[in-house]
Every structure is written in C-alpha cells, then in structure tokens.
Amino acid sequence: MKLIQIPAGDGSSLPALHVPSASGRGRPLVLIQEIFGINDAMEQAAQAWAQEGFEVLCPDLFARQQPGVRLDPRVPEQFQQGISLMQGMDFGRAIQDLDAARQWFETQGRGDKVGALGYCLGGRLAVMMALSTPIAAAVSYYGVGLEDLLPAQRVDAAPCLLHIAELDGFVPPAARETILQRAALQDRMPAHVYTGCDHAFARPGGEHFDAEAAALARTRTLAFLAA
Predict the structure, then answer these.
(1) Which helix (H) or strand (E) holds 17?
(2) What pLDDT does residue 109 have?
(3) Which stretch of DSSP H or E encloses residue 6?
(4) Among 125, 81, 135, 127, which residue's Cα sits nearest to residue 105?
(5) Distance separating alpha carbons of residues 124 and 102, to the nearest angstrom
(6) Mean of the pLDDT values across residues 16-34?
(7) What are the backbone dihedrals phi and psi of residue 70, each rounded to the nearest 5 degrees, phi first?
(8) Strands 2-7 and 13-19
(9) Which has the closest alpha carbon to 202: 169, 171, 163, 151?
C-alpha cells in the first residue's frame, strides 16, 4: 500500500492510494472516499477489497483543496471539516479526477473492465460515474443526494448497485422512495435496503457499524462486480 501520483485530465497530477491485489494481478477497482479523506477507514477498506482480489486505486479528491486530509468522524470539529470540504468540492472536477483513475488502469495495461465503489460522498460519486463515464460497473454504499441525481426516466448508464440504509439520517424516507423508484426505471440498477441500519453501516469501528449487514453487502457487491 502506497501513495502514488497519477496524471489528471488538466495536465496536473493527483495523489492516490494504490493497493495491489493480495492474489497478484487483481481486477481494477477505483475506490471513492467518504468526506473524511483517505483516513484509516479508507485505508482499511482498500486493504479489504484488495484481499478480495481487487487492485485498488483511491484518489485523494480533496487534494485540490487541502492535500492529505485525514479526518476522524468521531471528532465533531473534524466531522464539520469534512462537510465543509464536501461543500467546497467541484463535483465536475472530481468526476474527471475519478475518470483519470479509471484511465490510469488502462495505461497500465489493465484493460477496460474497471469498476468503481464508493461510500457516502463516494457513493454519490460512484453513481455519477455510472451515469457519465465509461466505467464498467459501479457500487454505491449509502450514497447521499441520490434522489436529486438519478434521472426520472430510463437512460444509458453503466450497471450500478445501490446499498441503502433504512434509517439513514441523510436519506429521509421520502428521498429513499424516490431513489428506489428511479433506480427501478433503469435496466441495471439493483437497490437493496438494509433494515434497521443507519448511515455508514459498513464502516468497521464506526458508530453505526453492523457486521451482518456489512457482510451481506460485501457478498452482493462481489457477485455484482463478478457478473
């Protein structure tokens, strides 16, 4: 596991965490951060997916505002800092940076079957990649703001799996119903609601971590990306 520099679309370079697959030549996966930067939780997630046979690249999407952000969501001031960084993010630029990560795999001879997977903010960005980039498939863990992002009609998009927490405080019931209805309009956008779970249920050590739900989501994710 190491931090590397990848070419960005505007001629600059972008720091990204690179974790080779534990099995050698793994399937390429762009991992998309939460609002807390590439912190301990994202490093653990990258290592966990590498253990599942993926070669993981996790770009530092806050580097254009503040390189090397590592926030602890359990500290109120750092939680608020993460929200401020998200609010200051240029989402169009972030998608270009994520697509640069996808292209990096291609330049390394890894083929064009690159997947993307994100949590929270990253869950929203994963859906945006499915809607607007040549990503092969995307997975969204408790993405935020999807009710305003998903189109109200069928569109041409990459396959995209949605993991939704029933009790997510950032996704009220009405928003969740809109997400489910709009996902159902698409050809390849399965959505699963995790009963009794709150936001970030798959973050080990987090306040709302649910081991059973996280394991089920991981099983579904692996099957989805394998297909």
Answers:
(1) strand 13-19
(2) 83
(3) strand 2-7
(4) 135
(5) 17
(6) 92
(7) -135, 100
(8) antiparallel
(9) 163
Query: What is the reported pLDDT for 126?
Result: 98
Q: Which two tokens stand for residue 10?
A: 């505007």
Q: Is residue 24 very low, low, confident or very high in pLDDT (cuts 50, 70, 90)?
A: confident
Give residue 147's pLDDT. 97
Dihedral sign from CA coordinates of 161, 165, 170, 172: positive
Q: Which of 23-27, 66-70, 117-121 has the lowest mean pLDDT?
A: 23-27
Contact in structure between 209 and 203 (CB atoms under 8 Å)? yes
Query: Which residue type occupies 16?
Result: A
Average the pLDDT over 27-53 and give the result.
Answer: 96
Query: Which of helix, strand or coil describes residue 11?
Result: coil
| Locus of tokens 């999407």 | 61
Q: Catalogue the active-site residues.
A: 168, 199
- pLDDT tens by residue, 165-196: 999 999 999 999 999 999 999 999 999 999 99
CA distance 131 to 63: 24
Task: Determine the Cα–Cα distance for residues 215 and 14; give it in Å rounded to an integer.
Answer: 32
Q: CA of 8: how far to CAs of 3, 61, 113, in Å?
A: 15, 11, 20
CA angle, 143 then 196 then 153, to 5°:
40
